Amino acid sequence: MFGKEKGKGTPGADKGAKKEAEAATPDMAAPPLKPFSKSRSHAPSKPSSTPFRPEIPRRVTEIPGGPGRTDRVLSLDDEANRLTVGRNIRLTGEITSCEKLVVEGQVEASLTDAHTIVIAPHGHFKGNASVAEADISGRFEGTLVAQDKLTIRKDGCVDGSVRYGKIVIEAGGEISGDMASLDSDEYSDSGNSGPTNK
What is the pLDDT of residue 108? Predict the structure, then answer.
């Protein structure tokens, strides 16, 4: 009976239609603002439901009777134990506490407390070396003591005083100078030249 015409009758109806139209276009609408809390800060008034907990790294436990972290033996292929002298590098001086020395360039040095020396085909070592194993593909000049094994490859050349436990010389490998087995050195150093009759 008393019907209202749409858009007429109340002054707020026009404003409501405008607000609905603005809300329909999200590009033009701004997000609603939240009122400040009583403390006049912008932080939320309610604390978060999950409190902040920093991550603490877990301690690694060691197995009793097993190897400890410091007891692990580092492998000879480990980069931390290895010194490589590159092809275009010249090195002079003294090298100590090196597990494996790889010579691709030129080295003039004294090498002590090393396990292995490897001289690459273009490498050149001049000086003294006392090692457990030596693998020579390049050139070595000086005094070499290989307590376990000396290997001279087909292009390898050794010149100087050489003492070895075992020796392997490939076809084409060269060795010149004073050379002897460590076993024969020990036998001759003890003063025994053979059985004696009393």
Answer: 96
pLDDT per position as a tens digit, 48-61:
566 666 676 666 66
What backbone phi and psi angles, to 5 degrees, belong to 184? -70, -30
Tokens of 92: 């002079």
The residue-averaged pLDDT of 131-160 equals 95
Which one, of 111, 89, 108, 90, lies nearest residue 100 by Cα? 111
Q: Which residue has the higher pLDDT, 40 or 172?
A: 172
List of E strands, the chain? 82-85, 90-96, 100-103, 106-112, 116-119, 124-136, 139-152, 157-169, 174-181
Q: What is the pLDDT of residue 116?
A: 94
Continuous H helices in the chain: 11-24, 182-189
Cβ neighbours of residue 31 closer than 8 Å, sequence gap 6 or more: none
Every domain of the chain and the residues it spans: 79-188
Side-chain half-sphere CA neighbours of 138 within 13 A: 19
Query: Confidence band (pLDDT; 50, 70, 90) for 182?
Result: confident
- Read off the amino acid at residue 83: L
What long-range pairs does 101-110 form, CB within 8 A, spacing at least 24? 103/138
For the chain, percent helix, then strand, then coil, each to nearest 5? 15, 35, 50
CB 162 within 8 A of CB 184: no
